[in-house]
Amino acid sequence: MAKTQHEQKLIPQKALFRAAMIWETWVQTCYNYERMMGMACAHTFLPVVKYLYPNDRDKQIDLMTREMEFFNVHPEFGSCILGLAISMEEEKAMGKDIPNELITNIKTSLMGPLAGIGDTIWQGVLIPILLALCIDVTLSGNGNIWGSIIYAVLMFVITYAFSYWNFMFGYRAGGDAIMDFLEKGVLNKLLTGASIMGCMVMGGLIVNYVHATCGIVIHASGMDFSLQESLFDAVLPNILPLGVTMGVYGLMQKKWTSLKIIGVIVAVGIVGGLFNILA
Question: How far is CA 75 from CA 29, 163, 193, in A?
Fold first, then answer.
């Protein structure tokens, strides 16, 4: 499926660029339980279908119907699947014997792995790191709005640049290269590295943004013994913020809603403050 530099192409570069931009811009619209991102996938083909079958309306309808089937993936990491699908549809339009089911099956087989790695790296590593850096910029001065501006600009640039690059990678490399990438275990290595990095990032965020202080002070023999200063800070610094975080995580694992968890945090805070358990 990989294309050579001298192979004829039906789709001009401007149409591919427009298709990639349509995917990244409108991928999160028109969700439904039957097709998920299927409508956005078909929308992506609008700039290219007229070049594949310029004088055959029936084949245009057949292509758009096929690309409107159920599809769900991480938008940026899954954009290579759209590039690959366009590449296969182009080869099919040029006369290569590619069954309709093959295109659908390849899209279906790739969307699961790429969704997993995309969610892990994008939401577990990239976004928390950028947020941590930009929140620090915002908190560095009163009324400083540069943190939010920097975050918005960086996310916009990174999102569109990576999505377009990945889209073109799928179009140029073809399904063989993508499957080879997955079969060599690169995916598992990336997921492992991203998970480790995500744990490091979350640990840093817990220390900086989760606050819990024990207010219990024991009076004995004319001396005051503070559990926070003399025990927790000396033996296990930041153990209480970690405990709060893991407690919330445990409630989430038990399918508690966010409102219930917030209610528990508020109740514990009020009781702990009234009885001086929490400072």
Answer: 11, 8, 21
Ranges of each domain in the chain:
13-198, 211-274
Task: Confirm if 273 and 213 have CB atoms less than 8 A apart.
Answer: no
What SS3 class is residue 13?
helix
pLDDT per position as a tens digit, 61-103: 999 998 898 899 999 999 999 999 999 899 889 888 888 888 8
Quickly list DSSP for 145-164: -HHHHHHHHHHHHHHHHHHH
Cα maximum dimension of the chain: 96
d(C-alpha 105, C-alpha 108), whole Å: 5
Identify the DSSP state of 224.
E
| SS3 at position 218 | strand
- Three-state DSSP state, 220: strand
Two structure tokens written together for 161: 């640049």
pLDDT tens readout for residues 230-271: 787 778 888 888 888 888 888 888 888 888 888 988 898 888
Rounded to two decimals, what is the model's pTM? 0.69
Helix (H) and strand (E) counts in the chain: 12, 2
